[in-house]
Amino acid sequence: MADPSAAAQRQLESIAALERGELPLAARDRIDQLRGPDAPWTSDLSVAELAAVRHAGFEPVGMVMGSSVFRIAAQWGYSTVFGVGATGGAIQTYACPHGYGYYRAGPDHRYGYNWEHTAYEQGVVDARDLALARITQEARDLDAHGVVGVRLVRRHLEGVGNALEFTVIGTAIRRAGGPHLDRPFMSHLDGVAFSKLIHGGYVPVWLVIGIGAVEIDPGCGTEWLLRSWSNVRIDQVSDGIEAARLLGISRLEAEIAAADADGAVGVDVDFATHEVSNGGILVELVSVGTAVCRYARDPLDEVPLPIMRLR
Amino acid sequence: MTVAAHPRADAALHCLATGGGERHQGRRFSSDLSVDEAVLLKEIGYEPLGLVVGSGVYHIGYQVQSWGSNQEMAGLTEVMYAARTDAVRRMERHAHSIGGQGVVGMKLDVRLDRGRENLAEFVAIGTAVANPTVRSTRLWLSDLSGQDLYLLIRAGYEPIGLAFGACVYHIAHQGLSTWLGQATQNVELGNYTSALYEARELAMTRMQDETRGTGAQGIVAMRIEQASHIWGSHIIEFLAIGTTVAVAQSGHQTLDPTMVLPLNDADIALTDGPTH
Amino acid sequence: MSQLPPPPPPQAPAELEGLPKDALRRLSELQGKDALFTSDLSVNEFLLIKEAGFHPRGLVVGSSIYHIGLTTKSWSSSQEVQSLTQAMYAARELAMTRMEEEATVLDADGVVGVRLDVGFYEWGRGTAEFLAIGTAVSAEDGGNWKTPEGKPFTSDLSGQDFWTLLQSGHAPLGLVLGTCVYHVAHQGMFQAMGNIGANKEMGNFTQALYEARELAMERMQDEALKLKAEGIVGVQIQEKSHVWGSHTIEFFAMGTAVRKLPDRTIETPKLVLSLDR
Questions:
Q1: Is A310 on the interface with C (CB under 8 A)?
Q2: A-chain residues within 8 Å CB-CB of C193?
Q3: In 3D, which of C257, C259, C239 has the Cα closest to residue C249?
Q4: Contact B263 C47 (CB under 8 A)
Q5: Distances in whole angstroms, Cα of residue A231 to Cα of each of B60, B77, B267
Q6: CB distance A275–B115 less than 8 Å?
Q7: Interface residue B263 vs chain C (CB under 8 A)
Q8: What is the pLDDT along chain B (276 residues), one digit of tens a residue?
Q9: Chain Cα centroid distance, residue B251
Q10: d(Cα A260, Cα A254) in Å, to the nearest integer?
Q11: CB under 8 Å to C270, separation ≥6 — which residues?
């Protein structure tokens, strides 16, 4: 029954739609179906979440998704690909303690550099932006006020170069008769947490991400410390890691500001180190959270009740 | 279809639609607090300020002089203690710089870099908080969660700081003759018992020493962690760590808990979000 | 418009001439007013199901062994593997129908805590066992909880969730599922390697993964529409390659379709703070 040429044609149309910034055909079909009269809503809310979302005055309208597979520009050291200073990415420099040479004057005498991987950082942010734009489009098409329980899939695809898949998926919710929002809110908090947030005086705004990636390319002074037996602080490595952490946090704060929000809650901090082929270390801090706005200052309607569980 | 009235939901959406509400009344914050923690801390007057972090990478290799004896590795104890203190100081400086009065949910970790021998990152991370109605220059640290801190303050206590003590100990490689001699008997290995005993006691004593002069009246949620990090099984670090507290001016308050019998199979109550 | 309709429901139980004899004998022991009941419910789940006004009747199972091998043609394009989609669909439907059959024998009103497992055996390459297992329950007040077709309802909700669902004014209708087995092209490597210094979206891969998930979800929606459900709760989306290698992936969506119960309101939950954990 399936006509292969028709299927291929459909795929091409979907890809073209994606490039135009629209949704692929399969997504449009499904959303249209959800909008139909008497169409059941879908949700990955648990029953407790469903009750909590209803209790907060909202109702589910459908599951929504956004996805993007993104090719990230070359990730290995700037020193191997571009040569020194080609991109001006060094944020910290460590001179050879013996006063020798410039970069790689010899195997035992060379400068150390900490580089920021700006292309990689930007690639992750771009892929996230595309995925969020698509889930927003799906939510908007359903006249939703926001999406709760957004799960985030960030993974490297097997055997496809430097491909990064970024997928977000969650349940769109709506308050009947509520004001129109130009941009529905996005939250990675589940339905129960969403309900508590609303009752606590905050409203979710946007999914924010802060990423800092720094490659530490050790100089001879650092190498010497690494090989010695003295138990001391290794400044270059410490500085590189601290730089990555602070970059990650400050980017997160910049995104919160850009979302016109007051802060972020439930931030998940993921820190990883990778070995790089030229003997360096790539350190990466990725923090993901929900930016929130404060809409009321009043305390909770009732003080939490301390309980003792009888097991 | 009629929609049930819900002033909070309407106010929340109105804030998003118009950019109004109470937004931007404080400093922007980033925190790794869960929703429960953020809401509860707000109830006791604390606002989150931001994620604060301090870290340092240290070389923690060792050379053993004598394999046969049980003894403290004083050099390693010193570097482990100094590295942790340094990470905490850096985090404190970060917290001070954004106007923090306290740090909650603090974690003090040692991360090993598998690719590089003898390297360890010591990292202190937490969320800085402040109570805008209170003037205070003192900074307290605590590894308690937001929920625990809420209960602590509601019960009439205040956190003073974090106390920890470390001891790195070398456990002797047992000689062949002793092994053969004891193989058929069930006896206490007195030297090992006393070695591990001593190491733990030393760690706890050092932790207690840290509280002196801070005004603390006690240590809660104390624990002893033990780890061999990169050294192999015969060298063990014992770390005693906890939050020091004192009774606040209001004195101890009773919480008078209600007894409940949960019907959940998971250990989370129905009204408790699975967010943490 | 949907690209292809979900496969027709199989007339499976007829093929097997109903349930195996052993099953009927086991179920006969569970019938009657004061009969023994079996279930894999925990004590708390049992108590909450009783609280909700239901009585557990017995553990019901359905199983189907299906060949799901990959017949490789030339895979230079990303496309749905329709033969596999249909096999995965049919095998699960068969297992579920048999489980429902067992529940019907017990004259149960529904099945709760349904799990759908796929197991592989070493003796059969490309052969998988699809297993549906759950606890049949009957309403104590004799109310009508069955689906519009008069069959017992099915749901993957736990006893706690079942109670909460009824409290919040909903009742389960049936388990709904949608699946799509998709092949992601091997080609595209050259495309991927070219222009390596720039960040760029890979449209063909995005489209392939996007479409596969959307198709699975749309088919699940179709099933709920047929049941005249109000909505679907607890949707899980699984992505598994089973035995096919990393380029062929099954996107499987499953949830419980629910309907509204008249005149029930949600009780305001109380905020509590536990002192003992």
A1: no
A2: 161
A3: C239
A4: yes
A5: 5, 11, 44
A6: yes
A7: yes
A8: 567 788 889 999 999 998 877 777 766 788 889 999 988 998 888 989 999 999 999 988 876 666 778 889 998 999 999 999 999 999 999 999 999 999 999 999 998 875 667 789 999 999 999 998 888 878 999 999 999 999 999 999 999 999 999 999 988 876 555 555 555 667 777 778 888 899 999 999 999 999 988 989 999 989 999 998 888 888 899 999 999 999 998 888 888 888 888 777 754 444 444 333
A9: 25
A10: 10
A11: A302, A305, B271
Q: Is the ipTM of this complex over 0.85?
A: no
DSSP code, position C77: S
Long-range contacts of C17-22 (CB under 8 A, 24+ apart): C18/C101, C19/C98, C19/C101, C19/C102, C19/C105
User: What residues of chain A lie within 8 A of the CB of C270, using their CB?
Assistant: 302, 305
Residue to mutate among A160, A166, A168, A301, with most C CBs inside 10 A, is A160
For tokens 């390319």, the residue is: A217
Q: Which residue, among A166, A2, A188, has the nearest Cα to C215 in the 3D structure?
A: A2
With CB atoms and an 8 Å threshold, state whether A11 touches C78: yes
When CB atoms are compared, the residue of A273, A293, A307 closest to B16 is: A293
Q: What 3 state SS string does chain B have? A: CCCCCCHHHHHHHHHHHHCCCCCCCCCCEECCCCHHHHHHHHHCCCEEEEEEEEEEEEECCCCCCCCCCCEECHHHHHHHHHHHHHHHHHHHHHHHHCCCCEEEEEEEEEEECCCCCCEEEEEEEEEEEECCCCCCCCCEECCCCHHHHHHHHHCCEEEEEEEEEEEEEECCCCCHHHHHHHCCCCCCCHHHHHHHHHHHHHHHHHHHHHHCCCCCCEEEEEEEEEECCCCCCCEEEEEEEEEEEEECCCCCCCCCCEEECCCCCCCCCCCCCCCC
Torsion sign over Cα C202, C203, C209, C213: positive
